[in-house]
Batch of 4 targets.
Target 1
Amino acid sequence: MKIVVAIKQVPERDAQIHVTADGKWIDESDLNYAINEPDAYALEEALQLKEKNGGEVVVVCAGPERVTSTLREALAKGADRAIHIEADDLGQRDTLGVAQILADAVKTESPDLILTGLQSDDLGLGQTGVVLAELLGVPHATIIMQVELVDGGLKVKRELEDGWFQHVQMPLPALLTIQSGGNKLRYATLMGIKKAKTKETKTVTSSTAAGAQAVTLERVYLPEKQKKTEMLTGTPAEIAAKLVEKLKFEVRVI
Amino acid sequence: MSGVLVVMEQRAGTWNKMSFEALAAGQLLAAKLGVGVGAAVVGDGLQTLGAWSSSGKVDAAFAVEHALLTEYTADGYMAALEQLIKRLAPAYVLFPHTYQVRDFAPALATRFKQVLISDVIAIHDGPVFVRQLLQGKLNADYRQTGDGPCFVSVQAGTFRAEEQQNTAVAMEIFTPTLESTQIRNKPGELFRESAQTVDLSVAPVIVSVGRGIGEQENIGIVEELAAALGAELAASRPICDNGWLPMERQVGSSGQTVSPKLYLAVGISGAIQHLVGMKGSKAVVAINKDENAPIFEVADYGVVGDLFEVVPALTKAVLAAKS
Ligand SMILES: Cc1cc2nc3c(=O)[nH]c(=O)nc-3n(C[C@H](O)[C@H](O)[C@H](O)COP(=O)(O)OP(=O)(O)OC[C@H]3O[C@@H](n4cnc5c(N)ncnc54)[C@H](O)[C@@H]3O)c2cc1C
Ligand SMILES: Nc1ncnc2c1ncn2[C@@H]1O[C@H](COP(=O)(O)O)[C@@H](O)[C@H]1O
């Protein structure tokens, strides 16, 4: 089974975020980047499926040069090959634009299964996988926690709201968007890191130039605070004393 | 129709309550634009649906019915709604941002060469649609620049009808053309994991721990605080994903929904999927080292600081106050 995993590189969680002077995006100059968390789970699922059923795992990422570090990490964890879709203009592409360049790269691979994360930590669209499936003309299922191969097709466990789940059966080829927590993530071993150096990373240029967008991001800004939160300050002991007062006399739980 | 169409959600004859929030958003948008608002709901045998809870008016309502729509499938819903939207030609199509909508609305928009503006938290004149970036750290203004219908999904809990009234709305039946061969996925029954042993929904005091705790070994300091307060211990998703605490202690959209007298959030950033599970708490205290963490937006009392200093000091102070 050939599996393509779309992974995205996003700012590290603890990164200090600053909006650029033109208010159009965040200042990327001092940021550190990491793999989008659900994408790490998508990669893990792909690696486990390969271990069980054989096949190949190909990781693909669209973005500027810096994203190759994330692709290399995926290779070190066990992916067989990587495809870097070189694109410096992702900011000028809406979901359809990004999904289109991913679709073009995925098509040339003709995979049996495509995995994406369910949502990216930076844009938080939760859409790219579903749009990609539509562009590829394959069935999809979202927010997936478990994947099994059954009778030449898939049986997946979909997460629903409030602790509910559902199994869905579907034919291959198919696309799944993976939720976090379904598997335990592996670390790259020293051996893996060494081996990664011998693995292929193919660089392709994005198939089309960024064209007209259906939706446009106009401005980013810090949310205005609406709630009046009472901030407690001081040394830890002073804060603790103030908080205990509140819990005793206002919240009345002590 | 050139106005706003709101796609409501039901399952087995029961409304998903978020539908009425989407309807309220649709009514707000329609009022801004001076156009009418229609509503549609997809399924089979929809006459059994209960009253609509809405204060505004609905100009037209459609029951999109077909035997192949009894159970949700993305293929069935997309084919049916594509036909309805082509017939009505609305300028805007609004959805509640439910897990089901996440599953099909992006691809439905693709069929019209449009892009869904997902998880919207406000609608300003323009119209400009506001959504969150970086898990709530930033807001962003989006505008439709395509020329097809504009697809928008709205976040849970952000739009509410002023006065909810139960109203009966007459629905016109719309029967889409569907073939069973169009539907590629076979959905199974819904189920829950093995019986839960903790019911956080009745806990009067909850201490909840997030990724800020860093390591599993550190959870002890939060457990001690919970014990001192006589509180239940809860967690955000990453803690449960890592197996540091059992899944049943997860609070949020895919975990439990709680409304204690006190919810004390330790090292939790306050992503929307967490907030929907605890917004109903009477009082919220947040301890976080990042003064811009979105959790402070729902907190009554906030501490900007290192949890490894604040939490042990608080445990000590609580124990002292109690003895
Ligand atoms: C479909 C879907 C469903 C989801 N369901 C849920 C759900 O049910 N429940 C849920 O919780 N999440 C859910 N999530 C995930 C959610 O989006 C967030 O990723 C998650 O809530 C983040 O958890 P966190 O706040 O613990 O971690 P982070 O976002 O990483 O935040 C950690 C926080 O700790 C702070 N911190 C770090 N170190 C310290 C320190 N020493 N002292 C004080 N503060 C510190 C940081 O400033 C940061 O704010 C869901 C996501 C999706 C897409
Ligand atoms: N530039 C990209 N390169 C590779 N995969 C991507 C990219 N952008 C989004 N994805 C995939 O699409 C998923 C959903 O992203 P989003 O729609 O932005 O929330 C991510 O988890 C990735 O798997």
Target 2
Amino acid sequence: MHIPDGFLDPATAALTYLLMLGYGGYALYKAKQMLSAELVSLVTVLAAAIFAAQMLNWPLPGGTSLHLVGGALAAILLGPWLGFIALFLVLFIQCVVFHDGGITTLGANVLNMAIVACLTGYLTYKSALKLIKRWDAARLLGSFIGGWLSITIAGLACGLEIGYSPAFPYGVAVTVPIMAGWHAALGVIEGIITALTILYVARKSPDLIASEAGVGVA
Amino acid sequence: MTCLKKALIATLILVVVSPIFGVFLADLVGYHEPLDVAAEALGLEDLTETMNWTPLLDYMVPGLPAEVGYMLSGFIGVAIILAIGLAASRALRAMRRVEDKKPSG
């Protein structure tokens, strides 16, 4: 889902950079209030793990492939602000060191994977905790649907960005069905990995799941 | 073993096995994301190679076989992220010490 250089027109690139800087500034402000040395370690190790997991491209029958994005996972574990920082770190290193994702499209990639995917996963998980009384069912459904939906909505956002270009007036009509459709299917795997990881952490160290704080789930 | 150490070990294992997925299987069946399909439909041009600045493009290390370069790239990426985290952690500790030394009231 990493948009390379050349896929976005200057206006979309600029707008997505502005959104990244505005949201990133607020996320840093919120993170600074809660940050401890232990939390920094947690964010760093999770970012390193997501970076490594993203290197595992899974080729699928039919000629397509996918890798984990990890936005929902990071946001469920760390909350949306620290989750953003973890994903931003991954995307920034991928872009600057390996040119995986363009420099002109960094704003859009951060918007899709560090903002849209994180917020979608986090809000879905929180909603599941509120709506479903049984903790284990809430965790399972919240993390699975959160992971799946995060990829689907991020894919939709990506389709809107690359389809919205003055040179292609009907681009959105082409790109949105492709991106949202494919990611709705591929997102099932993101949902499964997110759910398995969250269920494992919930069993071993439930206190590490920041989005459960104050909800009464233990 | 702490949770962080376990996560770190799992990360290193992921990097070690990553060439199987990122190089071998990708070469075998072709790496084609939905984004590529959408871009082809619009005729968008990927400028990654035209405006490249890094020798580590595509997670390869010049002069090394693809599998080794991919794994080494993984270690480089993980090391840079951990170094940034360590620097941030030290900066935070130093900041907190300065705050603690400030006379209250």
Target 3
Amino acid sequence: MAKVKPRVKVPKTGEVGEIIEIKTLISHPMHSGRAVDGDGKLVPRQIIHSFRASFNGTEVMSVDLKPSVSANPFFTFPFRVTESGTFDFVWIEDGGREYTKSKKISVS
Amino acid sequence: MYCLCAAGLSAILPKIALAGPEEAAARVNEITGGFASDDDLIVLDLPEIAENGNAVKVAFDIDSPMTRENYVRAVYILADGNPEPDVATFNFSPAMGACFASTRMRLSKTQNIHVIAAFSDGSFSSASAKVKVTIGGCGG
């Protein structure tokens, strides 16, 4: 399988109370279990089924994904910054494998 | 001859049984208990025509103060013409400060998209829109 690579865009700095927009993308084929390969064989289901975003250890949002989410799942969502800290993002694949990415923001 | 052809097709693609509006409606009822109606709290951003069903952008913006007392706890995206109606479920928290998000989905054919917002007080809102799909995104 092609390399699975998570990417996240978070502003480096913010002001207290500001609502920032976070953009996340993970390169992943999201095999739905319904498509056939070149030999006419069904490709088994293999998707990212869960995405979680935390800030300073507290979960702020999550997404449950179904096979209808496109390949290379992409999400944007807001977050209100109140203090400096670290975002942790985790994508969980069928079978339990996890892909993670962290981003820091400094808030003034 | 036509029948033979159809039988052959279904033998090759046994799993492409599309959900249909009834199954999607049942799922909407399951989520909301029947207490949701389309209103203007949810602003949907969906293309009217999607040339490529493999990646159709869906974005929503929901009018909510996102405080501890009053926030959107979940948003469900359903597609009534896909093999299964559920596309994605977003679980939100007041820490977000606002309630908007976007993603990309696969659509197998022209169909209706339903977005349901579940509020912290137990109420629901929904919004629907039809997307015309030129090339389906089931990958089959």
Target 4
Amino acid sequence: MMKAQTITEKILAAHCGKDYVEPGELILARVDIALGNDITAPLAIKEFKESGAKQVFDRERVVLVADHFAPNKDIASAIQCKILRDFAREQNLTHFYDGGDMGVEHALLPEKGIVGPGDVIIGADSHTCTYGALGAFATGVGSTDLAAVMVTGECWFKAPESIRFVYNGVCPPWVTGKDLILHTIGDIGVDGARYMAMEFTGPALKGLDMAGRLSMANMAVEAGAKNGIMAPDETTISYVQGRTLRPYTLYESDPGAEYAFEKIYDVSNLEPQIAFPPLPENVRPLSQVGEVPIDQAVIGSCTNGRLEDLRQAAGVLRGRKVARGVRLIVIPATPLVYSQAMEEGLLKIFLEAGGIVSPPTCGPCLGGHMGILAPGEVAIATTNRNFVGRMGHPQSFVYLANPAVTAASAVAGRICGPQAL
Amino acid sequence: MALKGRVHRFGDDINTDEIIPARYLNTSDPLELAQHAMEDADPDFVKKMRPGDFIVAGKNFGCGSSREHAPLALKAAGLAGVIAASFARIFYRNAFNMGLPIFESPEAAAALQGGEEVSVDLNTGEIVAPATGARFASQPIPPFMQQLLADGGLMAHLKKKLEAR
């Protein structure tokens, strides 16, 4: 009988020509998609060239997205974006996204069907783990690893142990995938899954749409995980059908597969979760937040910049005004999200509420541009990190939350949920 | 070969935004990045440190983003290496790929004091504090990584493989 395996082990085994892999085993795996952005790709391109390589291993599988400091925020950033543009042209890359094609990479790649179930994906960006929501093995690496994969199409990995997270019950109103993952990080800590695979499952997860699932897998790295993953189901299949550009394979964990440990949560009474600065593990339920006045609210990013997220925010903001003295910045994650939000009237709701609508960009999430904080300022954001100085000055503060809570807080001028309005 | 230098202490969960803030990531010039090494954890770090010094930190050093600029900034600043109770996964890979020596030892991370001299044997991973005579073992480097280091980092390793084809 075959050894019982986790979904992560099965995908890795299939990509290194083995029947199974053991956690801890070092493997050389075939990579389906390799991704870089305007911060990480310039270093990778330099190293690619220095290696003496002439061509990338497959021009359809190396993906470059100029999203972090784009539209170019300054001359230095413009030079970095140009390095990507020149390389993409020279290598005739199929998937280079720039200007009006550009969206936040981890929202863009699933949307365009570039990544799919069963893939092995590496990206020189820590939030590459987002694609685990599709049932893929996806992990962040550095620029040198990306350069090596651009040359060979292969990457070495240590097969990770897996942790199984089971979410029982039904999410109450205003509780989203973001709240499930914040609650989980609050429970296990920012190194609670270090080097490991976080495998998400359970009835509450089945009830989430793809946007909610992508938010969850996106933040696996905030618990130190190598990857976050969930087995594809009908929701996944209906999302990827007619969208994926390559054939895909569905994997799921076998009964009896081994896990380092298991965590079981009942989400039926879960409140929206807020992560206090300066770590994503400093999580409190909304009712325990106390009085936290804010200067800025940011809705967007690879965690929560999808159409479903904007709908939740608009649902709260419809007919309301942003509090005086508060800046609300809404960042649709991709051009498609932007245009759909326009068609649905969401952008009008944001503008009428007194919000700012930004073009797609990572922007303020990493303190790049489009909403940087001054010393002493406080932001609530749907983003993924609240480290010291993450959104601007080292003495500014970021609280992480879901889109509806962020929108409600913008209206109230202090952190609160939609029910408090 | 042994590395010898002074200890600069930091706490747990030192993240890549503290090691090299994103506001400086519009360049990948090592010398420019080096001027801002550890800036959001200690704004005066670059002034205080001397080439050959060590960072000694708690658990999960290098958590956060995948920016290779983090180990690059530390290496270009002249640090000999980092000793920590544990490292975040991506930083661990990046440090080896960039050629920044890193040593995992919870005991050394707990015991070493700021300002004291420390010496690390690259071959054995043994960490010694000459003033107290304290010795600590650090996790041995996996064989696969030793090959990468012997070849001079990942890209040099690859170049060697390409040339052998």
